[in-house]
Amino acid sequence: MRHVVRVKINSQNKSNIILKLNKINVGISNVVYERDAILFDISINDLKRVRRYLISYKVEVVDEVGIYKLRKNIKKNILFIVGLVFSIVMFLILSNITVKVQVIHESQELRNILYNALEERGVKPLSFKKSYDEYEVIIAEIKNEYKDKIEWLEIDVEGMVVNIRVEERIINNYNKEYNTCHIVASKSGIIKNILTTKGVAIAKINDFVEQGEILISGEVKLNEEVKNNVCASGEVSAEVWYNVSASIPLKKEEIKRTGKMRYNFMASDNVDEYLILKSRVGENEKEKRKLFKLFDKYFYLVKEYEIVKSEHVFTEDEALKMGIEEIHEKLNINGIKNSDIITEKVLKKIVNNDNLDIDMFIAVKEQIGVKEYYKVEMDSGTSDNENNPNTNGIN
């Protein structure tokens, strides 16, 4: 690597110096003329020749250039640099170390269970913090292992403290006993299949039944006289109808990351949050990770991903397809599978304010039989319902 230095020569006749340097074929750069001197950059090898040739001038090295200047500054400030690097390393280590693990619950037994379960998974004092995804996996494993004891579990990292908030599962072992019940229709529809395991089937295949109508009776009759009362059981499926609507935007903003990412720091006081350094990318998406808490403020390490936005316009056919998929998802949420759909038809589609509004008629095969308990001494009515029949509809 070429070693270059900054040289100063005191002289009133600067042009004469330049001519002499050219005469001995010495390359110089970054020439600066001062009142009584000239400054320029020159290689250390050429400097030796200049000093021999310009013997009547004082040739003074005033600074290093390039990497050699950097080396000089590093040596000059070595203690400060070492201290700064050490401080940064210690800050990063401490900000990623768990000092305290705290389970927040009044039950000592449950706290001990969680402390042991967390320690087995590496969540303990003087251990490195884990990522959000790792904590989510740990929560799922512990909830699955102690499903009879834990209703809800959350891990919250505050600085160097890991707080575990838990809600205990209360199991009610009280089972109310019923002796007599009917199977009734929870919805109106046309019976497609009926399987009776106890009681007497009233409804028949292809019968239209209304909500609340008895499908399998718990009254066992002989010659129109009730001889016995049982709790009817069985399965009844029927063709049930739904009118479902959906609204799909015809325009969608698409966001794509350019691949450019820069680090930043953020502070938050639970009301406002603001970046500590000026953002070095344009419009961006942020991912943040909590570092520590200081004076009621939280400090985060932020990744800023530069993004570009564009608008995608859907055709009516594309929007209609998405609308049908959305309606199927609504049905799935309500326990109706796509394979249960018998027939479906778009009743109406209207473009309204850059949205495609659709209404659909859907016929599905669905289990509609629910138990309705009754007292033997009563001629009609029920003492309790396991399921209250609902009107047909998906919101």
Structure explained in plain terms:
It is a single chain. The chain is an alpha+beta fold. Among the domains are: 4-74, ACT domain (Alpha-Beta Plaits); 97-168, Roll (Ubiquitin-like (UB roll)), CATH 3.10.20.310; 181-234 and 369-385, no CATH class; 253-306, no CATH class. The protein is 24% helix and 46% strand. The chain has helices spanning 14-23, 44-53, 67-76, 78-95, 108-120, 132-145, 316-333; strands spanning 4-10, 29-33, 37-43, 59-64, 97-98, 100-104, 127-128, 150-158, 161-168, 181-185, 189-198, 200-201, 208-209, 214-217, 219-222, 225-229, 233-249, 251-268, 273-275, 284-294, 297-313, 341-352, 355-367, 369-373, 384-385. Strands 12-14-10-24-25 form a 5-stranded antiparallel sheet, with no helix packed on it. Strands 13-11-17-23-22 form a 5-stranded antiparallel sheet. It has a 4-stranded antiparallel sheet with strand order 2-3-1-4. It is elongated.
